[in-house]
Amino acid sequence: MALIELCNAADVEPGTALRVEAADRLLAVFNIDGAFYVTADACSHGPGSLSAGAIEGDVVECDFHGGCFHIPTGQPVKPPCTEPVPVFAVTLRDGKVWIELP
Fold it and tell me: 17 has which bridge partners?
């Protein structure tokens, strides 16, 4: 496993997301009430960006077609999405958000 630094935790206010490019991937870093989660930024159904979507609680709505995903698990919770988005294990260290990649 490799740890990849994504951003400063302070750059992601509670209830928001930040789009980050790291390790040749586009990722969405979410801050849900002080807990950090990282998913792929691309919606599994179309060209939408999850980091640009509306966040309500621990669910994000894709900005393209309105499908929704549970942020902690990446599971779809509202059509038209049926496939989950990848999620990554998050580590906070020295005020920074890191993820584990195989």
Answer: 30
pLDDT value for 51: 97
C-alpha dist (Å) from residue 59 to 16, 53, 66, 68, 99? 11, 10, 12, 6, 20
What is the domain range of residue 66?
2-101
pLDDT given for residue 63 in this prediction: 87
Token pair listed for 71: 């942020």
The pLDDT tens digits for 16-44 are 999 999 989 999 999 999 999 999 999 99
Query: In the chain, how many domains are there?
Result: 1
Could you tell me the two tokens for 10? 């302070």
Q: Which of 102, 101, 99, 93 is nearest to 38 (CA)?
A: 99
- Could you write out the DSSP letters of every residue in 51-97? GGSEEETTEEE-TTT--EEETTT--EEETT--SPPPEE-EEEETTEE
Q: Which CATH number fits the domain that encloses residue 56?
A: 2.102.10.10
